[in-house]
Amino acid sequence: MLSEKDQELQRLRNEIREEQTQSPQIDEENTASESLQRLREEKEFAEGQINFLNSVIVDLQRKNEELKLKLKKMVLSEWNDEENNGLGEVKKKKKKKKKESPPRVFCDICDCFDLHDTEDCPTQTQQQQQSPGSPPHSVNHGKRSEERPYCEVCEAFGHATDSCNEDQTF
């Protein structure tokens, strides 16, 4: 019985040794599989970023080509208009005629439109014909030697100060 127990003890010790030698191999396999899994995830993430950036590049290249075509069309149409000397110029002239209207004549002295310009104003020519130091002509149609009544209260011609109604004062 002792020998059987010794043999069983020996067998169990051997199993323990085998397990201990296999244990580091299992730990190494677990860390290797975890590292491999992490590397796969990083690879998938990087590939996703690459695909996204490639799609952005393709979109920008497409837009660039469209803009180049538009620019080429604009240059060709402008070149054709200059070269035609016919239809292109007629269109330009029609547009200019519609946009360009003659300026209206205005007189600053008379404050009126479309009659005459300030430089051609008849009032200005009358003032220039007078001597430079003399006052403008009177609009009173009386005689020069005749004295007109003036009211100092209301400061107006037409009645004397003595005959002024105080109700009319301002």
Supply the number of helical segments: 3
SSE-based structural type: mainly alpha
Q: Provide the helix percentage.
A: 55-70%
Low-confidence stretches: none
Major beta-sheet overview = 2 strands, antiparallel
Average of the residue pLDDT scores: 77
Give the strand tally: 4
User: Using only CA atoms, what is the Rg?
Assistant: 55 Å
Q: What fraction of residues sit in β-strands? A: under 5%
Principal-axis shape: elongated
Instruction: State the strand order across the main sheet.
Output: 1-2
N-to-C CA distance: 150 Å
Write the element-wise H/E pattern from the N-terminal end onward: HHEEHEE
Secondary-structure blueprint of this entry?
Elements: H1 2-84, H2 87-99, E1 106-107, E2 112-113, H3 122-129, E3 150-151, E4 156-157
